[in-house]
Amino acid sequence: MPPKLPPALPYLILLSFLFFYLYSTSLLPHSTTTSSTITTTTTTRTSSCNLFKGNWVLDRTKSTKPLYDESCPFHRNAWNCFRNQRENMGLINSWRWAPKDCELPKIDPERFLELMRNRNIGFVGDSLNENFLVSFLCILRVADGSAKKWKRKRAWRGAYFPKFNVTVAYHRAVLLSKYEWQPKQPTMNDGRKGIYRVDVDIPAEDWATITDYYDVLLFNTGHWWGYDKFPKETPLVFYRAGQPILPPLGLFEGLKVVLENMVSYIEREVPRKTLKFWRLQSPRHFYGGEWNQNGSCLFNEPLKEHELDLWFDPSNNGVNKEARKINHVIEEMLQGTDIRLLDLTHLSEFRADAHPAIWLGKKDAVAIWGQDCMHWCLPGVPDTWVDIFSGLIHNSL
Ligand SMILES: *[C@@H]1O[C@H](CO)[C@@H](O)[C@H](O)[C@H]1NC(C)=O
Ligand SMILES: *[C@@H]1O[C@H](CO)[C@@H](O)[C@H](O)[C@H]1NC(C)=O
């Protein structure tokens, strides 16, 4: 007996589901670069929500229990807060990020690596991307204990997961473009010890030629664009086409020009099929002074929502204002490109309680370097970044 033609309604529902799915996973063309949505499908409904907006809720169930501990071989000592016996590690890892209108699924390392089989993920940028990478490696290792350190192709740090033939690695390029130290010429008498020459139109060698090795790339820069790193005795001097840019650019103008050039390099040189992400600034939480002025972050719990603007809005001129300022520039530069934004700033702004602070694993580190209120304890907040990033990759492949 031939099957009866079904009525149209179920088809329509199915079609709209499909449309919704395609739309929210960015397979259909659309005009923005934001990829803040994730699709959660149940048998009865499909919804999408902004993963970057929400709140931290205290949750002492095992759902917040970290997937790794101090024994992960990919740790960097200064961020290995269990080993360094940081106080409050239990509490730090009892907060769960709750996006406003949905649940953020925790990564399933086995399932994720299976999805990534025969593919590679590359991180490019500064130590905040390295911090992110270490969390990612320690989490993925749960599904493949035979994971090995991997430092080929100019990678600074990384791992190969043999069970799945997946490489995840970090390429250090703090300004993204090429820069090098040039000592003072004897004829110059301008009070400088030398300059850091930045070639705004040349990407750093650490990543320029490796982009086609990766199926997913995640860029960042921002934390080195400050006068504390490059004071006027040893400033950044910007060059284009081999010539100094005149009149000389300040740091912030230099950042804009470098971003413009790096984004256009990525658009031009990185294969179209590569998934490209750009993560926004990780906020710092120095309280009472800069890092070199006894700035401190000995907090026991996250900031409250109403405190965030006081800390971070540039108009309040606080110690940590640069994150949002730099974000504005990055967002502007990414308009109209196929690079997606990973806006981890807001959720991280809350977490004044989750930096290594004075627990750095070395006796004199605080006396020399001050507290670390910039990087993050591991396990900790970057594990939530991993949940979000892996979820977005999952929805896009
Ligand atoms: C592993 O993955 C790479 C791509 O990253 C691929 O070229 C290679 O053939 C894969 N090896 C095996 C054994 O599947
Ligand atoms: C930082 O603290 C030390 C010890 O308490 C003190 O001697 C020093 O003057 C402080 N520095 C600043 C910049 O406040």
Tell me briefly what this model is.
The protein has 397 residues and is of the alpha/beta class. Helices cover 27% and strands 19% of the residues.
3D architecture notes:
With 397 residues, this protein is an alpha/beta fold. The chain is built from eleven helices and 15 strands. It has helices at 8-24, 89-92, 109-115, 127-140, 205-208, 251-269, 308-312, 322-334, 345-349, 365-369, 381-396; strands at residues 37-41, 46-50, 54-58, 95-99, 120-125, 148-149, 157-161, 166-172, 177-183, 194-203, 216-219, 236-240, 243-244, 275-279, 340-342. The strands form four sheets. It has a seven-stranded mixed sheet with strand order 6-7-8-5-11-14-15, with helices on one face. Strands 9-10-12-13 form a four-stranded mixed sheet. Strand 12 and strand 13 (243-244) form a beta hairpin. Helix 6 runs parallel beside helix 8. It is globular, with a radius of gyration of 22 Å. It binds 2-acetamido-2-deoxy-beta-D-glucopyranose (2 copies). One 2-acetamido-2-deoxy-beta-D-glucopyranose binds at residues 293-294. It is found in: Membrane. Residues 48-103 form the Trichome birefringence-like N-terminal domain.
Could you name the CATH homologous superfamily? SGNH hydrolase
Helix/sheet category: alpha/beta
Q: Which regions are unreliable across 5 or more consecutive residues at pLDDT < 50?
A: 1-35, 40-46
How far is the first residue's CA from the last residue's CA?
40 Å
Query: Structurally, how many domains make up the residues?
Result: 1
Q: What is the number of E strands?
A: 15
Q: C-alpha Rg, in Å?
A: 22 Å
| Form type | globular
Average pLDDT value? 89
**Secondary-structure arrangement, i.e. CATH architecture:** 3-Layer(aba) Sandwich
What ligand species are in this complex? Answer: 2-acetamido-2-deoxy-beta-D-glucopyranose
**How do the strands of the widest beta sheet line up side by side?**
6-7-8-5-11-14-15
Order of helices and strands: HEEEHEHEHEEEEEHEEEHEHHEHHH
Annotation field: number of helices: 11
